# Entry
Amino acid sequence: MTQVSTPTFDAVAVGDELPTQTFTLSRADLVRYAGASGDLNPIHWNERFATEVGLPGVIAHGMLTMATAVRVVVDWVGDPGAVVQYGVRFTKPVPVHDVDGAQVTISGKVAVLDDEARTARVDLTATTPGPDGAPLAVLGRARAVVRLA
# Structure
């Protein structure tokens, strides 16, 4: 097993890229998330209902997409408690196919360093394949601030 070291403030530079990760969300994930969160909106489990209200099909919960994206930051920094601020804007839904699920690819880059607070702001990009297969951004202004040693 390879030991992964956590980044330190002095070793991080603006422009550093976090390892890109792709996550698969399944309909079963949506059911588990609905139970845990209490968000039982039928757009997250009922194909007919979702399409009747104008969606491309069943979609992932926005907060599940948001939580999935920050995993890249948590994996990089090694401690979920190091995340001191996190926010996103939801730009597009993530359709979750009943067999294939949905692929969500997350990348991140260090955008700002605060010497006084010893924090780094990481800007995240979250995409899923669009109808034509091209990446479609599903989160906007996704930013996490982490405190580094």
Q: What stands out?
A: The chain is about 20% helix and 35% strand. The mean pLDDT is 96.
